[in-house]
Design a protein that fits this description.
alpha/beta; 2 domains; nine-stranded parallel sheet; 33% helix
């Protein structure tokens, strides 16, 4: 079975069989598609491919939302204003940006958009990130994960991506040696293997609506760049195909989870962790300081291990402070 099938935008419908995602190619993505057709999926699924223009992007993404199918947008041409206009207007949303530094236009928009309720900035290098942007990020209690922290444990990206509706991945986050695009001057950055693993975690997201891949190669650029983008998309699709939707708030799924309560000293304080039997995802319960209920927040097994050592996880403190401002 051909896993990547070209169709027209007008053919998008809820009746598409075995549809995993809709891929929207903006600009010339022939090299990427040629490389994708050389890959072999590990399971049967269908990704419908639409070659489109910036002018039609918002309508296509709206159609994908209507039929409940996530979209992968490949931007070999990139009109930032048009892409930003395709984000939800006037309604809350969550987003994640992977970029080498703070000059990313999508990050700047999210930092200034009051409707962005949750966001994270990943894979950045400190010397390319302005203190002003990082301060605005922290003032809104958006999350951050530097390149060095990702390299120590790339699984830390999964909780940040789990509830992200809109994910932006700048391929210039990859170092030039692994992604020798002429316009990519970065000597340091993610390794090729790391961008693929990040993409797989993005595919595991529970709220994914659109994933934007930008800074993609054009005709005449080194073939290895197109090959790496194709491998990134392959890992993203494989993550989607093996993903299992689950919700610890759903009482009907209660038997799929185990609660682990960790005591934090002699004063009787406890942190409740929730672990999925099925996927090994982790969450933790955080009570609102104002007594307005309990929030269930994605976390990692590392947070659980930290609590078991008698330390309050930084992620718990971060969200406790954030909820205190609500």
């Amino acid at each position: 079975m051909e896993n990547f099938e070209n169709i027209s935008a007008g053919a998008l419908s809820s009746a598409m069989p075995e549809c995993l995602a809709v891929m929207v190619n903006l600009g010339d993505c022939k090299g990427i598609m040629d490389s994708l057709h050389q890959t072999f999926p590990t399971r049967g699924y269908k990704v419908y491919v639409v070659d489109s223009s910036m002018e039609k992007l918002s309508r296509i993404l709206l159609r994908c939302r209507e039929i409940g199918v996530p979209a992968i947008v490949n931007c070999s041409i990139c009109d930032e204003a048009t892409i930003i206009a395709s984000l939800p207007q006037g309604e809350p949303y969550s987003a994640t940006v992977t970029a080498p530094g703070s000059g990313n236009p999508f990050l700047e928009h999210i930092l200034n958009d009051k409707h962005a309720t949750d966001a994270s900035f990943m894979g950045f290098q400190g010397y390319y990130s302005s203190p002003d942007s990082l301060e605005r990020l922290r003032s809104r209690y958006f999350e951050e994960l530097r390149l060095g922290a990702m390299r120590e444990d790339i699984a830390l990206v999964e909780p940040l991506l789990r509830n992200s509706g809109y994910t932006f991945i700048d391929m210039k986050s990859v170092r030039h040696a692994d992604y020798p695009l002429p316009s990519n001057p970065n000597p340091n950055g993610l390794y090729a293997e790391e961008i693929c693993r990040l993409a797989r975690y993005a595919g595991f997201g529970l709220e994914t609506k659109v994933i934007f891949l930008h800074s993609l190669p054009k005709e005449g650029d080194p073939q290895v760049c197109a090959r790496l983008v194709a491998e990134t998309i392959w890992h993203l699709c494989e993550g989607m195909a093996s993903n299992i939707s689950e919700d610890p708030n759903n009482l009907e799924e209660e038997g799929h989870f185990v609660r682990k309560i960790v005591g934090m000293g002699d004063n009787g304080e406890e942190i409740v962790f929730i672990n999925s039997y099925t996927t090994d995802r982790w969450w933790m319960e955080i009570s609102s300081p104002q007594g307005k209920g309990t929030h269930i927040v994605p976390c990692s097994s590392a947070d659980y291990r930290t609590a078991c050592c008698g330390e309050i996880p930084m992620r718990w403190l971060f969200f406790y402070q954030k909820f205190a401002l609500l």
